[in-house]
Amino acid sequence: xxxxxxxxxxxxxxxxxxxxxxxxxxxxxxxxxxxxxxxxxxxxxxxxxxxxxxxxxxxxxxxxxxxxxxxxxxxxxxxxxxxxxxxxxxxxxxxxxxxxxxxxxxxxxxxxxxxxxxxxxxxxxxxxxxxxxxxxxxxxxxxxxxxxxxxxxxxxxxxxxxxxxxxxxxxxxxxxxxxxxxxxxxxxxxxxxxxxxxxxxxxxxxxxxxxxxxxxxxxxxxxxxxxxxxxxxxxxxxxxxxxxxxxxxxxxxxxxxxxxxxxxxxxxxxxxxxxxxxxxxxxxxxxxxxxxxxxxxxxxxxxxxxxxxxxxxxxxxxxxxxxxxxxxxxxxxxxxxxxxxxxxxxxxxxxxxxxxxxxxxxxxxxxxxxxxxxxxxxxxxxxxxxxxxxxxxxxxxxxxxxxxxxxxxxxxxxxxxxxxxxxxxxxxxxxxxxxx
Length: 436
Hints:
- Helices cover 41% and strands 15% of the residues.
- It is an alpha/beta fold.
- Strand 3 and strand 4 form a beta hairpin.
């Protein structure tokens, strides 16, 4: 688990919220991001749980048992308990199979020893929202929802040949959105989307961005100083390294990253690409490691592409620091956590101009309209050819990252929890008067 940083003492627990239940059905905060269904959601839940516990809130995290050896409860940090609930076979399931296990998960949560003891239930992703809605109704506990990704957005921005999200997900998301006491969105763009799609009032939506662990993701020696960190690529050198971090699925655009490298190498033949992540979700079979290697061979850049499985957070920070540019060509993104982490390491980002990345990548990188590799390569080449431009972007990205804090995320989350608890209490107090 990540060590606490960013000054947790700056956050104070709220008097009405002492015990919180976080629901993450399909992926555990104990899983390594970038493998299976693990990604930014895992990091979000883990960081928030640890920091809430650090200010005196007891946190229970409920996730599905995906391996028979997983214990019933793991305590990764003081005040945090991760509970593995039985719902279907104890193995990895794809999300279509998971949808068939939601009733079993809800029943297991309702029977759990902690059921009904939480001041707030906070569900992450639509599968968890379906469970949270049902359990909240049975226990009378306020429900807070964070979607992380939305089916309506994914269907509007499908990668070529990708499979649309099923009607079940779209219907479930709408019901959860309407039933939740409060929805925490990662960006203003997500808030606008929920308003347009479901007509939700702004009073029901709180913008709570994700943060970055500045104790782990940092540039090492001063950016632009004489002593660069060992292994960090010099963008003026002939052998600059580009980096892609994320799950290998069409949505994230790893194929665009390979094609971008091919275009860059026509100008700078020594440039290489490192891809960090594993195949998952609907990307299996179409943008996994084998397919990306085949694409690299087809484009004549096989010797310049390295593909490795997801790595732990300290190693990931080293990958960011060693890269000249991070590529983030996602077709859609609710919040570009990898882009924020790269900027915290002083690495410029070349990203697709989609809402979740637009909110993260400012002067610390370049937003490219569309997904044409030629356009992305042009943005990359501007950094590789102009050290002054790259240094300016590095400093701007650092400033943006330093303004983002997981403690700020926790502070806003706790304030939202306090609001929904107070609203429930006011409604309960008003009910006798209405009845009378």
